[in-house]
Structures are given as C-alpha cells and as structure tokens.
Amino acid sequence: MEGNLNQDEDSQGSVSKREVRRFRCEVIVPESTEVFTAEKVVEYVWPLEGCGEHYFIQEQISQYLGIMSFKRKYPDLRRRPLEMQERDYLKEKGLVSEMACDLGLTAVRSEDVLDVMLVDFPSKFEELQKLLRERKENEMKERGKGKSSQSVLYTSI
Description:
Strand order of the largest sheet: 1-2-4-3
Helix content: 55-70%
Number of helices: 7
Structural class: alpha+beta
Order of helices and strands: HEEHHEHHEHH
Largest sheet: 4 strands, antiparallel
Radius of gyration: 23 Å
C-alpha cells in the first residue's frame, strides 16, 4: 500500500509540473479583412552588413498560404524570433505594422519556405516567385538609375 502512495505522489507531482509549463503560441491577427496577397509578403536580408541571409516573416507566409499554424504544420523549419534592431528596421521601412511587432514576429529562411511552397503550394509558389523576380528587376533598375545619374553629376563638374 505504501508503494501505491508513493506512486500517487509522483503522479501528482508530474501533473503540477505540466500545469506550470507555458507554451509560446503562434498569433496571427489579420490587419484587415481583405485577402493577404503575394504583394504583402516581405522578403528581406538580415543582417544588413556583411553576408546576410534572406528571410520571410512567418506570420505573413502563414496568412498568404492560409495556414492557421505554420509552425505546427512545418515544425522542422529553422526559425527565430526577430531581433530588436531587425524589427525596428522592418517597421521603419513600413514592411510590418506596429501591431504585428507588438504581437511578436518570427523570421524563417526564404530558402526553406520556398522549398515547402514548391511541394505543397505550387501555384502560390509560382505567384510569389514571379513577384520576387519583378521586385529584384525593379531594384536593379533603380540602382542602375542611381549610378547613371551619379556618373552624370561627376562628369559634368
């Protein structure tokens, strides 16, 4: 009978440990009722200096793909909470809202997300790839314009 008492005490102790555990939830709060399109998905490089990696914001990808819990559906993807400087950078550029920052944002490597999308969401993958190519082309054109106007400035002096 004493053995049973010890077993009950142990099981009660483990129950109380479970009650103390707290899990970090993935929170998605749509900023409006409109559909979250590829145009709203942000890809960025971090850190800015040196050789940074390309990232998406997990909460945006989740909304774009229509997945309630991207973290639960794809638990093996590498992810990390945004650093404070990273969050401030994205907020200053207007890429994320104050509300989203307050709720907490998670960075996921672009390469990993695109691999998942290619297999599980081929049409969304194509749509996003097309948009990312267009953004890259526009960025290159803008850089080219900036350099050509600078060279004109320097040659006219």
